[in-house]
């Protein structure tokens, strides 16, 4: 061998040994993350539904063009999905309340069909932490129910207990637009408020939710409404799908003062994988390119694209059609962009876990959880649907979170609050 080749060969050998030494580390990290992911209970507090996907012919046992299905949950190792009884905000009158109530009942019924008729051998409904653990121990998936917008209860306080008895274990008192119970965060845009926080009925609903054992969700109400709910509630509260305003200045996120309130209250913030709530700069840069594609696809589906704030103003049938086409559009655009070069980088799992890091720093590990808002606008690169759930755990392991901490983030903290709300319910009922 020529002496001139010896240094070259030495360098090649050194590089090869270096590559081999890194590979086991990567494999060890992956193995560690997979083992943790299999052992902990993974729980997502916000997954929207469409009742059309809960029929004999079309349902979650199939690989539907939605972000949540049973096959996707199994593939990604997502154990618990909180299915959402969502109702958009409409008129504050008897007709509006009746329509909203009927819509809510249809979604309760759809979830019930899934667990009792469509796939009882694969998924069961849980209403307590004990049931969650018992169902997952059997190897089944878990359904839980959250109510997004208290508007459907109308002016009938007894509907709170009725919804609880149907399985509802958390409820927000408003959504996009002021309800009869609470101001919404959307009022921040022009400082227009209806109640300056909670209405008198809303204050009664807080007390009733404490009495029946339903968690209070503050993700959509205004900051002042949140302050009043914390002041009035005897139990810890949750933010079912919000992130940190300190990292992304959006009215749906919680600022540092609100985070301190949550910590003092003993509650939990379920960090949400929603692009515009995680990284405004990356989201806006990418959307500038993608919006034209999205609009073209929506036009081809017969539903012109509109601002998210305008969707809630649509009539129920129009809103349903819009969401159906929006879900289909997302899938079409995702396929298109996978083959496109030179797109601005997407909001991804690293941006998501940046918010988890921030929330943990501000509130402590005991007060932070995880949510997706799948099929309601959520989803990021790396966690675009339930089949990619493992990637969140992998990123947490990469950042040095322990298994116990990851268990807290995925389910422990939320279930702890559920237990505490239940315990306070028992105290209240024992005193009455």
Q: Could you give the topology of this structure?
A:
Elements: H1 6-39, E1 43-48, H2 70-76, E2 80-86, H3 94-118, E3 123-125, H4 129-137, E4 141-148, H5 158-165, E5 168-172, H6 200-212, E6 215-217, H7 223-232, E7 238-239, H8 256-265, E8 268-272, H9 275-278, H10 280-300, H11 308-311, H12 316-337, H13 349-363, E9 368-371, H14 390-398, H15 403-431
Parallel strand pairs: 1-2, 2-4, 3-4, 4-5, 5-6, 7-8, 8-9
Characterise this structure.
The protein is α/β, with parallel strands linked by helices and 432 residues long. It has two domains: 40-279 and 348-431, TIM Barrel (Alpha-Beta Barrel); 280-346, no CATH class. Helices cover 51% and strands 10% of the residues. The strands form two sheets. Strands 1, 2, 3, 4, 5 and 6 form a six-stranded parallel β-sheet that branches. α4 links the parallel β3 and β4. It is globular, with a radius of gyration of 23 Å. The relative contact order is 0.13. The model is unreliable at 1-22 (pLDDT under 50).
CATH class of the largest domain: Alpha Beta
Q: From N to C, what is the helix and strand string?
A: HEHEHEHEHEHEHEHEHHHHHEHH
Uncertain stretches: 1-22
**Which fold name corresponds to the CATH topology of the largest domain?**
TIM Barrel
What is the CATH superfamily classification of the largest domain?
Metal-dependent hydrolases
Number of domains: 2
Specify the structural class: alpha/beta
Kindly provide the radius of gyration, computed on alpha-carbon positions and rounded to a whole number of angstroms.
Answer: 23 Å
Q: What is the percentage of strand-forming residues?
A: 5-15%
Q: Give me the CATH architecture of the largest domain, please.
A: Alpha-Beta Barrel
